[in-house]
Every structure is written in C-alpha cells, then in structure tokens.
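Subject: sequence -> structure tokens, single chain

Hey, anyone have a minute? Need the predicted structure for the following. Not urgent.
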Amino acid sequence: MKQIKLNLFIILSAIVGGIGIFSSCTKMDDYLKYIDGKEIIYTGKVDSLQFRSGRNRVVFSGLLISDPNIAKVTIYWNSRKDSLIIPVQRSAGIDTLEQEIPLVEGTYNFEVYTFSKEGRPSVPAQATGKSYGALYESSLYDRPIKNISQQDGYVLMEWYNADPTSFVELQYEDTDGVLRNREVPATSDTTMLFGCKPESKIKMQTCYLPDAYAIDTFSVAPKYVNADADYSQRYLLNPGGGTDGILGVEISGGFGYPLDWTISDEVKVDANHQGWSVTNKALYFASVTGVNISNGKVYQTTTLPPGSYTLSYNCSNGSPLTGTRTRVDVYFLATAGNSLPDFQNIENDASVLSWYRLEASKLITGEHSIQFKLDEETEITLGFVMNINNLNTTASNYVVNQVKLVYDAVF
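Reply:
Had a minute. Here:
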C-alpha cells in the first residue's frame, strides 16, 4: 500500500513539474514572436575603443578580434545626426582600425556599432572624444621663468611651476656655432644648457598636450630669451670684486689714486685722501677737517652693445646718517657720452640714462643699482658725483668696494 502511494506521488510530481517547465519555457520564448521566432545573434564589438584628441579632429581607433563576419563599422555622434561608415575587410587575425574624424572644437559622445555581412548589428560601444582648436590654444601661456644666468661653461635656467600638460622646447647656439635642441618636461625646475654661447639668444616655445593620448601638440608663439651675463670685466676697467678688490696707486698714508678711474680735482681734498684706499682696496671718498668735497666726480667711459643693463655698486662703509642727513650725498649714474653732469643738474640732464641718489633716509652700506636700456651701440660714462661734508670738524667718508655691470636676461 505504501509502495503504491509513493509511486502515485512521484507520478503526480512529474506531471506538475512538467507543466511548470512548459509554462516557464513558454514565457521565456515569448520574445520570439516579435523576431519571427528567431534568436538575436549580435555581431562582435570593437575592442580597445578610443577617440584620441586632436586639432579640430579626433582619431578613432580600435581592434577587431573575434568575429570574422564583421563587414563594416558605423560611428554615430551629435545625437545620431552625424555618422561615419568604415568598410571592413577582415583578415584571419586581429585587425586594427584607425580613422580621422574632422570636427569643430568641442566634446563629443560617440556610439560605435559593427555590422555583419548579413546586416546584424553589435551592441553599441560608447566613448567620449574631444576636439581642440583656436579657443583652447588662446588660453595657453608661456611657462614662467624665475631666472636665467650665465655660469662657468653653461647657462642655468630656473623655472616656476608648470602646467602638467606642458613641456618647453629650447633651441640655442653652442660655442662652436651648432644649434642644439632641448626638451624640458613640466617636472623640471632647473635646466642646464652646457656649451651655450655666452649672451646668445635662446629660442623658447611652450607646448601642450591636452591629455595623455592627444595626437596633436598645441603651442604658444616662440619667444627669445637670454641669460644674465656679468659684463664687468669685459667692459669696465678695474671694477673690483675678488680678492684683489679695486686696484690703485698709493700716494701717502695708505691712500692714493684708483687705476683706470678718472678723479676730478674736487675729490683731491688732501694728500692722504685721493680716491682710493689701500686698506679697503676700494674707492674711498672722504672730506677732511674744514674741507668738503663739492661736486666731486669719479668715473670711466666705455662703449656698450645694445641691450638692457643693471649697473650696481657695493658700499661697505660710510659715515652714519646724522640728524641733518647731509654728510654723504652721492649720485650713482650712467650717461650717454663721455662725461658726467654737475651735481645740481643730474636729475634734469637729457644725457642721463639712469641715476640713484644716496641721501636722506637711505642706507649707505649695501648694494645699490640702476637699470637702463640701449637700443644701439652707445658710448656711456658711469660713476659717482658727490657732495661729502664734514660736521663739527669731523670728517665724512664713503667706501665703494665693487662696481658691477650685468647684461640683463630678457624673458
């Protein structure tokens, strides 16, 4: 009896299960009535799909790996208002696709389909691409330069931080007259140009790759820069600096005349104070008890090529400023021509290229400088015009240790 009931249970379960399976299959296959009872078979997709950025274009690339029946690739963009068809002739292996698409500047969303010989499509593959143009390029800027200086055997360029998508192309002439090229990545903060011809112009162009896979480089218009160069020894006589300081000839008591500098009679107030100090190895200007220096001049004349210049001097010592602030009153200046104007005319003289006045509230010691620019080769005179007074029978003095002329970098 038990055996009969068990068999009956198995039979009934099989019938119910069969009905369930039939019902389930019927529902799963319902979609076939919409495709004439046939299964959908999709064509293989494009692998490694990419749209690389370019100048007023993008470049589509991809791989066809598995499906030998692919006959064409269709690319849609602009909400399917625009499209491109690429015919395909499949090989026995992997085929590489690459196609340039001219596009105005902007960002685009692409849909990519493959189609079989029978016209069956793939599922869509989607990707974004960007075309760059004049608008993007107008936003670019030169990488800023912190400093350029002429060193012994090379030019040192120091940079501020760069846009990470940028790099700089440099071209310079070496000492043999050969043009050399360097590329400076955004990560470099210094660049050394070995063998760069002193004072030669360096061509600089800042370039940009909008993204890591861009196919076109965008750039700022090239510019020309040059390094700071110390012209002191080349164009000045006896400028000082180094262990020898400013050279001179002793007259008496440790004082005398500096070599190669013209000293006006107004400076020669005493046999022991003639414009140069043995102890300081420097230009030395001093009043003496009861005698002032009035409109005294110390200078030299040279001829400079066109360019921008910084002329400076270093003062190590001088009488302290007093309440009247009139003990040391000195102009440091450069003029066009072979002479210096008188003290009272300096600020209004047309020949003066630049001047600095050491007077009320200005520190005596330290470095003081002036700048000027020459558009053509020019004879200039540089130096000091001064009034140095004693006070209450106490002498005043002024010491210049070095005069320096620098050809300024342009950047």
